[in-house]
Amino acid sequence: MPVLPASTVARRVGKEAARAVVGRPEPLNLKKVLVVKKTSRLEAERLAAARRANGISPSDAALAEVLQRRGSAIGPMQTRHDVHARNLALLLDSLADAGVHTDVVRASEYKVEPPPLGGYDAVLSAGGDGTFIDAARHVLDGTPVLGFNTDPEKSAGKLCLAPSTNLDPAECLAELAEGRFRRFTRRRIRVELADGVDGARELVPARAMNDVYVAEADAHKTLNYTMSADKGPWAEHRNSGLLVCTGSGSTAWAYNAAKVDAHHAAAILELGTTTAWSPADARRVANDFNAGLTFDPTEPQLKYTQLAPIVDTGGLGMGTKTWRGHIPGSGFATSLLLRSAGWQAYLAVDSAETFPFRDGRVAVLSLPDEDVLQTVALSGIAAAGP
Known about the structure:
Elements: E1 4-5, E2 32-37, H1 41-52, H2 60-69, H3 74-97, E3 101-106, H4 107-112, E4 122-127, H5 129-136, E5 145-149, H6 169-177, E6 181-186, E7 190-195, E8 202-203, E9 211-216, E10 223-229, E11 235-239, E12 241-245, H7 253-258, H8 262-272, H9 279-291, E13 302-307, E14 330-333, E15 336-340, E16 345-349, E17 353-356, E18 361-366, E19 373-378
Parallel strand pairs: 2-3, 2-4, 4-5
Antiparallel strand pairs: 1-8, 6-19, 7-8, 7-18, 9-12, 9-16, 10-11, 10-15, 12-13, 13-14, 15-18, 16-17
């Protein structure tokens, strides 16, 4: 995907969009929506097999034989596909019953060539968190994005309307029509690239709702770069990769990269205290530490985590945040400047799109107000929102 000059991108949404709306909002009057549906594993395998056979889709038996030769089984894939398909059909039927005009696009196609988004009252994702991120990727004009988890037994759905329960889509639509929801925003990371600190900036077209990952193309090579947090001093870093996340992303990869379990906590307690402790104490310590790793998706903060740091100057950009989720090589900032000293480094935006980050190239990571994503949480549903 080409990188666009920053000057060509208009500021479409004012600063007020970055603030969560308090109280019951006006009903969400849906007349026309775009549904971005996930591609199930079974569908992906069938499409891949068809490409290998010059567009001829394989029979179930033929596909099962191909999968069996690889050591996979078609049965579990079929089960999960059927659950997704049933819930997708239920969502589309509910939209039709409510008189909502619906256009449907597959997420894999939407990522490559999205249809014009003007005129839609909302973009709906039908899948899990990954599909929600795909659906939000091209929305830059304030159109709300709503997630329907079509397989809650398999997908956490932290970004969706109902993270861990399977709500009736008709009930969801009724709550939206009656104003029984709250609006809030999710911060997204803007990435700009330049040749040198003072070079003309080019805007990366994708926005990261979860995270930006920087690493070498050869995974076994060390990543070398210098970094400045909030326009502070530059510091050299060497590690296996740099992960920069938003509050939304703090519950995803960044969380799993830093979390500890009760076994780790027990080992530390055994070494660090002479007083008696129990397995329950170890679990409490682990839970308390892990709870501090996440933060609110509306908060204008970037959290960076160096993976397997070799050189760490420590404390860069931490400010007053040292109490929360601090691990060696991590910190908080409102903006970051990165200067590559790598061989074949790249930046990955939400694990979907990658951009070269060659030696001497500078990346600017920020959280502009106009890049926030508008979404909602239904009343009584514990979505991963504010």
